[in-house]
Design brief:
This protein has four helices and no strands. With 89 residues, it is an all-alpha fold.
Length: 89
């Protein structure tokens, strides 16, 4: 029997371009509250796919939607206060 470890390099060659750069990670960091809020909303929606939503489910959905809206608002407000790269100083 052949070991797959011997073929590992052939199966999944490693490339330096697979990992995000520090600059890319830093660009994503301010968006993390929105990403997490959207994930929580998706989780709440998935829980109600195969059943009739209860009052608790509806409350969970409303809270998740409010968190998404709050995170979007905060992100947009933060972006509105940043100087754009095209501004002449």
């Amino acid at each position: 029997m052949k070991s797959i470890a011997a073929l590992h390099a052939v199966v999944t060659p490693w490339s330096d371009g697979l990992e995000p750069t520090d600059a890319e990670l830093n660009a994503i960091e301010p968006e993390m509250p929105l990403i997490l809020a959207e994930r929580d909303l998706l989780d709440a929606e998935i829980m109600t796919l195969d059943r009739t939503p209860t009052e608790v489910d509806r409350q969970r959905l409303r809270r998740a939607r409010r968190r998404v809206l709050a995170a979007r608002t905060a992100l947009e407000n933060r972006a509105a206060h940043l100087p754009s790269s095209g501004d002449a100083a």
